[in-house]
Queue: 3 jobs
Job 1
Amino acid sequence: MAAAGPGCLLGLVFLAVLLPGGAPLLQASQTWTLLKVQHLLGRPPALRHWRRTTDFCGGGGTVAPSASVVCYGDTVTQLHVEGAAQGAPPLPLNFSLGALVTTLSRLPDLRVLTLSGLGLWGPLPGKLERLAGLEIVNMSRNYLYGPIPRGLSRLQGLQTLILDDNMIGGEVPGWVGTALPALAVLSLRNNSLAGAVPESLGRAPSLRSLVLASNNLSGNLPDMRGLASLQVLDVGGNSLGPAFPRLGRKVASVVLSRNKFTGGLPAAELSSFYLLEHLDVSLNRFVGPFPPALLSLPSLQYLSIAGNRFTGALSDKVPCGDNLRLVDLSSNLLMGSVPACLRPGGKPATVVLSSENCLDRGDGSQHPSPFCQNQALAVGIVPRHNEKKKVSRHAGFIAGIVMAVLVAVSLVGAMAFFAVKKMTMEGAKTRPSATLMEDHTSTSSAYPSKLFADARMIDL
Ligand SMILES: *[C@@H]1O[C@H](CO)[C@@H](O)[C@H](O)[C@H]1NC(C)=O
Ligand SMILES: *[C@@H]1O[C@H](CO)[C@@H](O)[C@H](O)[C@H]1NC(C)=O
Ligand SMILES: *[C@@H]1O[C@H](CO)[C@@H](O)[C@H](O)[C@H]1NC(C)=O
Ligand SMILES: *[C@@H]1O[C@H](CO)[C@@H](O)[C@H](O)[C@H]1NC(C)=O
């Protein structure tokens, strides 16, 4: 007896540890809710193994990486369901996103929700606000459309909202910056958002990562110098611009590619971004001298200025930062030679792309230097359709002044003309003023080409 006692005890302890009952069982109502979610999602492959008998809180619902259920005590706090990498076709017509959200609201402690690549379709329902505990939401790669509903602004704990690769439309709502005090990550990549990026995003107190790439946004970005935590800004592939955005000094990654940014880079400001690792301003309309100081930013690893009209001469001696890995200077108007620190054999091994400039590389990848000189002079002075002509800086400048004078004179002339015309018609009082307006615009838009022709004559 005395000898069997400790053995029995050990056995019991052993059993207690081994039994799945070691974790509390999920409340029966929540098990039922999870099975309803499985049904509403059309029993996706990731959830095929869910049964009434599944021990969800003991890890039985989890099949990494596509499905997982996490409990705290006997209640579900996290639910991740991911479809295949390429996404799923839209769920059948009897699918209802509203019903799914209503069902999920029966998991009152749900904090983290991933439903990506599952074929969800429909407008985002305002009743998402019922999932009041949500902190992290990822509903990427579905077929969500319509605007971002106001209801989301009630999710006061929301820290991360990811709705990439959907068809969300309308504007980025003005309240995102101010109504969600905890919002740290906002990612709305590859949707159909239009309009301007709201000013309020410049005041989002916790914002760390803002990704609005591949939408149809336009206008200038809000002033984001006050966003002390902002590290990632990716707005590539919109119609944003013309001004380079104002950013806090702690940014680590800035992607502005494929937009309508123009003017020069704010060289002094950029050289204070000591944590900047990734800067991509490619395929915009930037002009002006390329600031070589960018190459020596201490943290910079990736720099692309490709496909703009940056000018200036590089030299052997321009220094490079220790962390540079890729520099793309292609398709600009740069002259001189690639800095020694960027040439093969330099350390660290940096990949450098520089074709279609006027650098002295002698490998056939470059334009002859007069090309860059002429293009550089043309930037900002000569209108687009006049670019091919050779103009000296002087002649261009004079032509500019002459054009300005001519425009002023002709505007005054046109105004006088219409004033007279209006007076002569005053008696008849037949034509509505809208017609006059049309006349005026068509007349004034007819002027420039004549003016340019005149300017060309003078310029010869
Ligand atoms: C939708 O219809 C299909 C086929 O009729 C059915 O198998 C499925 O259970 C229905 N789904 C829902 C969520 O009602
Ligand atoms: C959101 O879901 C997508 C698709 O499953 C995944 O690739 C991405 O990493 C997720 N984002 C985050 C921040 O978890
Ligand atoms: C953008 O999202 C659509 C779905 O709305 C998807 O089909 C497409 O592959 C995505 N594009 C990219 C480049 O990811
Ligand atoms: C993008 O917005 C502009 C107006 O800002 C509109 O003319 C254009 O059709 C939109 N493009 C798409 C693809 O929605």
Job 2
Amino acid sequence: MQLHISPSMRSLTISSSNEFFDSMKIKVAPPLISYRTLFHTILILAFLLPFVFILTALVTLEGVNKCSSIDCLGRRLGPRLLGRVDDSEQRLVRDFYKILNEVSTQDIPDGLKLPNSFRQLVSDMKNNHYDAKTFSLILRAMIEKFERDMRESKFAELMNKHFAASSIPKGIHCLSLRLTDEYSSNAHARRQLPSPERLPVLSDNAYHHFVLATDNILAASVVVSSAVQSSSKPEKIVFHVITDKKTYAGMHSWFALNSVAPAIVEVKSVHQFDWLTRENVPVLEAVESHHGIRNYYHGNHIAGANLSETTPRKFASKLQSRSPKYISLLNHLRIYLPELFPNLDKVVFLDDDIVIQRDLSPLWDIDLHGKVNGAVETCRGEDEWVMSKRLRNYFNFSHPLIAKHLDPEECAWAYGMNIFDLRTWRKTDIRETYHSWLKANLKSNLTMWKLGTLPPALIAFKGHVQAIDSSWHMLGLGYQSNTNIENVKKAAVIHYNGQSKPWLEIGFEHLRPFWTKYVNYSNDFIRNCHILE
Ligand SMILES: *[C@@H]1O[C@H](CO)[C@@H](O)[C@H](O)[C@H]1NC(C)=O
Ligand SMILES: *[C@@H]1O[C@H](CO)[C@@H](O)[C@H](O)[C@H]1NC(C)=O
Ligand SMILES: *[C@@H]1O[C@H](CO)[C@@H](O)[C@H](O)[C@H]1NC(C)=O
Ligand SMILES: *[C@@H]1O[C@H](CO)[C@@H](O)[C@H](O)[C@H]1NC(C)=O
């Protein structure tokens, strides 16, 4: 917890280092600042009251550093605020601290009428001749109410953001509908992809194969365009775009009408993979149909959440973990890559919320030292928040199975851009491990982990991960606005993981151009659907 009073003393910032969202600014009305009176001391101290309970409160005030108790604060603040003081005033201040201490532990009476503003408080005080104790009590009640209101509006904001993040924007929906329509009316949109003479390339290991699984056509177009435009050897690129049944026609139309030659694109729907059957993917069937789980992801998120016990940050991560996308087959697809592409040796698997800014062909030359999965680690790096993910951030270590098998301090790695050595993978039991842990988590009512597809992969790939340099893949552009722009420019791949996707209104404006750069605004479909206008 940190307290910062600005030099002008017009604002007071209370923030705590581990609760990112909890920081708040309280503006103190300027007219109250000018009097250097006892009243003012009261006001400031009363502000601090709710926070004094936290022993490590740290106060910074023009040269007043590292006060960690109210006594210290009082000693320092008193004379400073009062200007030159004599004994009687000092006694007054001392008495006042005594009152504050009493008030800070007292219950606030029910039905205490609280003024709505400080102006009203001041006028109430003049009219009713409050004694110092009543005054302090009212102040404290006001602050606590204010804090509650802040929290509630923060939660409301997070809920709104959650729904904004999980609904499909009008423009993207329009794009999908129009392209689907085009598929049935325009033979060119239905043309074979790739053209028949290039089909052998799809399983030729001399090419660089990328796999992208998504139902978002616009996002897919950005990933593919950015990869091709950033490549020094676009003629070596083969993209395998996998989508769901409902998006297939639209996705196919897009890539049939917007060639990225000399690169090659193949569009497939999950229903076209003979391998994806109930026998081979038993767990996913269970995941999608399990009633309790459907409720969990699609149900009422506020009900059952005790807002007085949670923090906005925990709540946000809870909401995110309940995003319906985590139960979709498209998301779990990556664990079946060796079976879906039986002839390929190496692929780079990409998420749809990334942009490629550099030639990725050197990825195929990275020595994976016999490992299966080349990934960036997420526990080291400049960005303290994004790069602080260890296993303990993903798993419930109170669960005996988790505690027995995993080390909470072990570094996690990221999905989004991974190089997979499928030949080595085929010799392992990664898929079986993944399945057995998914089942175990279902059986224990999702108490082992909540957040979708990464945790079971963190277990299944244990011992099979080779860390690659973090400049290959920069994370966090979708969950914080204070991303370092210089690093964004330098990264080979930037990843908008988090809620604030660049195609949503809640995306961060200053990070959006890195993505929109690859949206073709002169394309008729994009124009007619008014995408991000
Ligand atoms: C929420 O938690 C607080 C503090 O533990 C408790 O007093 C309150 O009864 C809880 N509310 C609900 C609805 O469970
Ligand atoms: C899971 O939840 C169901 C119903 O909510 C309950 O009957 C069952 O005992 C729970 N199982 C475990 C392992 O907690
Ligand atoms: C973590 O696991 C323990 C033991 O199974 C369980 O009691 C607890 O509810 C779990 N916590 C969460 C948040 O699921
Ligand atoms: C953008 O779309 C237009 C019209 O479809 C097309 O002529 C142009 O080549 C596209 N530009 C890029 C960079 O793909």
Job 3
Amino acid sequence: MLPLLLLRLLLLLLLLLLLLLLLKCESAELLSSERLQQQSAPATKVSCPQEHSKTAVCASFVRISVSKCWLLGILLLLTVAISWPAETVAAPRRARGVDLILPHRHHPRPLHHHQHIRSAKSNIVPLRTNQTQGRDSCGAIRMTTNISHLQLAHEVASNTREAVLCLTKEWLRSQQHNLSGEIQAYSKHSMAVKHPLQSEVEKVSFQKELDDFVYDGKVTTVEEEMPAIIESLLVLEHLYEIIEFDHMSWNCYFNSFVSFFHHNMHEALKLAGLNDACNPRTSEYNAHYIHPVFGAAVETIKVLTIIEHKYAQLIHLYSQSAGQS
Ligand SMILES: *[C@@H]1O[C@H](CO)[C@@H](O)[C@H](O)[C@H]1NC(C)=O
Ligand SMILES: *[C@@H]1O[C@H](CO)[C@@H](O)[C@H](O)[C@H]1NC(C)=O
Ligand SMILES: *[C@@H]1O[C@H](CO)[C@@H](O)[C@H](O)[C@H]1NC(C)=O
């Protein structure tokens, strides 16, 4: 128990430190942008010295508030790094979140905003998922409930959902768009990603006043919910492998999403009492969806919204039944 306590303390310290850096960073950015405005310099290259490598890539694009999202992301990654037992198979196979400062994916994709494409037929194609020999299928997991694992999993789902939402909004802002506008623009389209939470995803609604997604559905038991959660996370991870992101979008906004999946997967597997991931069934998605990056971001927010809600409900359910017995 003691090392765990120490780690938490360390994390708290790091958090404070980063917060301090952020404050410094923001005021430095504000100052330099003000200065630039006064000089009416055309190329506003605001950079943040503390986050050198990442901002070097993003500096010319991103606004000041992005550093808040990055902070969130960095904190989450720190939590992952600290809480991750090295031997679990759920650990990232590739250090993708970190080493993608280098341009891996450079496929400039024009933004589609043509209303007339709305009637485009969807084109459902298979989304291949890896099958590992010797693993059970995701539907065949048996487990016992541990409420402290459930609480931790809820916390991770909640934090990563917040980070994903924040980064998505910042990404849209960087392209002079906003969430409600884009949701409206693509409301007639569906990416139709097939996974066990697909029918729930359709029930996640966007609330304009909150500028956020809401979901309120029933839960059953940990035994029934966990396989669906785990399998859906695996499918999302594969989805991010086939979508082509432009360089800036990937490096400045989306590369941390994969680490978020890993962290959620890690907690979900622990909750399910598994050391290893399971084999998801073959999935599919609409390859004609006109704005795949936006579609994937929304799908991610929706899935994490559902997962967070399910964990909260399960915690409620199991603490009640524990109280009665
Ligand atoms: C699936 O397998 C391929 C080939 O081994 C690998 O490159 C890819 O990263 C794997 N994807 C996932 C999500 O495990
Ligand atoms: C739940 O998990 C915690 C931490 O891994 C462990 O200490 C505790 O004994 C577990 N509780 C039950 C009821 O298994
Ligand atoms: C969001 O974008 C839409 C269309 O791009 C625009 O009409 C609307 O005013 C924007 N809303 C906000 C709050 O910026």
